[in-house]
Design brief:
The chain is mostly helical and about 250 residues long. It contains 9 helices and no strands. The radius of gyration is 26 Å and the shape is elongated.
């Protein structure tokens, strides 16, 4: 496997690992091309295909096959694979590639819908919006009052500085997002952005979730530029299968 194809397959693995929480590596693709079954390749490929199709936590081979039939997947060799994970890495790779060709963009869109970039996504914790009585310190005199006012002013300055830093980070995220999606913000703040700017807790959650989706989108953008290399390599996988069966 050349450095170039390994790099491109790495892009695909990274996307699927982020979306599905699996552990795909380019080496599994290389092994599967030659229908090799070592290094845990078959369980990982079955698990990946399961999450791409039935989306269940437990891998059930027959249910996966039924789902592939519903998608009009026509490989006879796939449907006769054993359910004991003993063989069939190449057929699993071809089935995964079939799903990727059909659904990768939809998977990316689903991830965006579950991120702070979607209007329906909410960071709000209901416990945080419960009505609470403010804590008012018991003042003992002018000195206590002056000290309390100074404390409030210090907290206000600190919060303003923190808000400015959050705002800068969020602005950078949206500049990158607009670049990746070729989309322009309408200048209006969504609720999640307002929360992130007003709360350290929400800002941390907002930035963490944004970081994940930004990594995914950057990878997807690069994948779109280079995926032709992958599909050319997949043609060599098909050729390998045809050559092997012609020799039988």
């Amino acid at each position: 496997m050349s450095v170039e194809i390994k790099s491109v397959i790495g892009l695909l693995c990274k996307q699927l690992n982020i979306i599905l929480n699996v552990n795909l590596i380019p080496e599994y693709f290389r092994l599967a091309k030659f229908d090799k079954n070592e290094d845990n390749v078959i369980p990982v490929l079955w698990s990946t295909l399961n999450l791409l199709t039935t989306k269940q936590s437990q891998t059930k081979v027959e249910e996966i096959k039924d789902h592939m039939k519903s998608l009009n997947y026509s490989s006879t060799l796939f449907y006769i694979l054993p359910g004991d994970f003993s063989s069939g890495s190449r057929e699993l790779l071809l089935a995964i590639a079939f799903i990727i060709a059909k659904d990768l963009s939809n998977l990316i869109n689903e991830e965006i819908k579950q991120s702070p970039f979607d209007d329906s996504f909410s960071l709000i914790d209901l416990e945080d919006v419960a009505i609470q009585k403010p804590e008012v310190p018991n003042m003992m005199g002018d000195t206590d009052m002056k000290n309390y006012i100074m404390w409030l002013k210090g907290r206000t300055r600190q919060n303003k500085k923190m808000t400015k830093e959050y705002e800068t980070q969020i602005t950078k995220i949206y500049e990158k997002l607009n670049s990746l999606l070729n989309n322009k913000s309408n200048g209006k703040l969504l609720l999640n952005e307002v929360l992130a700017l007003s709360s350290k807790k929400y800002c941390k959650e907002f930035l963490e979730k944004c970081s994940r989706i930004m990594d995914l989108l950057e990878c997807y953008q690069e994948w779109n530029r280079k995926q032709k290399i992958f599909w050319k390599w997949m043609a060599s996988v098909l050729y390998e299968r045809e050559t092997e069966y012609l020799c039988l």
